[in-house]
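Q: I'm writing up a methods section and want to include an example of the input and output format. Could you take the sequence below and give the corresponding predicted structure tokens, formatted cleanly so I can copy it straight into the document?
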Amino acid sequence: MSTAKPSATSATSPTLHDVARAAGVSLITASRALGNPGRVSDATRMRVEEAARLTGYIPNLIAGGLKSRRSLTIAALVPGISVAQFLPTVQALTTDLDRAGYQLILGQTGYDRGREAALLQTMAGRRVDGIVAAGLLSQGDTTERLRRAGIPVVETWELSDRPLDMAVGFSHLKVGSAVAGYFLAKGWQRVGLASGDDRRAAVRREGFLSVIGRDVPTAIVPAPSSVALGRQACARLLEQDPQLRAVFCSADALAEGVMIEARARGLRVPEDLAICGFGDADFAAHLLPSLTTVRVDGAAIGHHAARLILARCRGEGVETPVIDVGFAVVERASTAGS
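A: Here is the clean output for your methods example:
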């Protein structure tokens, strides 16, 4: 009768027993040093960590999670990893979670509700300790299961009177209204919109039009926005109204494209065409001319979201589950002095 030989991996993979033996400590001490270092001395922790490094030991996080019922992971869902406005939020969230011993798993929805539901189902199946979403989640069977499972959720970059759980964001309707008011204060009547086709951009369009009081030339492009799509949008807007005076863009990348196309057509910015973006991307202040835009503190959104999700993971109450971070219209050369 033949006997199966263990695989090379199983034969050579170091165990916690190997680490304990190498460090000269008990198995329970090695376990505490790696899983709950606050319960051992610094000298012991360092000795065990060094033994783990030398032996090549990799902790079994799944087994540890089954025992503690915590995975020490938080899922974050964003429409696209290429969308610059969400990066400060993800960075702040990652930093704060890391300090608390949590890791971030990033999922990309692609502005697709079906993809969003599938990701939520997967993340819940992997027993993440919480979920942070860029935008409001679609209410349905999947989100209802999250609620029943008691998984903390923070919806960000948007507000709702009835969030799924907690929310950190601002009013996109008020953003559109504020930009429209800014345009009217400048005396501009022949204005237009270059907008992505996502829901949040649609809400900003609604706010803009409600203050302008009429339909205006509009070019809607597929999200996520890009410079190339901005150039296309500008061309379409000028076909609708060659005398267009100002354009509100749903993203700074679109605004940069509008600016490039306008200048390629011999138009001066802002003397002939004023341009306002949204998001205050890193490049906005460095364009020529610099770009007027709507600033949202994305890092603050990430810090607030981390604080809320960590409090819930610790079983603590949250006094303010909905936080409005506000926004500001930042005037720069692309609209100033025109």
